[in-house]
Amino acid sequence: MKKYLPLSIVLFLGLVWNALAQRPPVDREKLEAARIAFITTRIDLKPEQAEKFWPIFNEFSDSRENTMRQMSALGKDLENISEEEAKSRIQKRLQLQGELLKQEQNFVGAASKVLSSKQILMLNNIARDFNRHLYQRSRDERK
Question: In terms of domain of life, where is this protein from (predicted)?
Answer without folding.
Answer: Bacteria
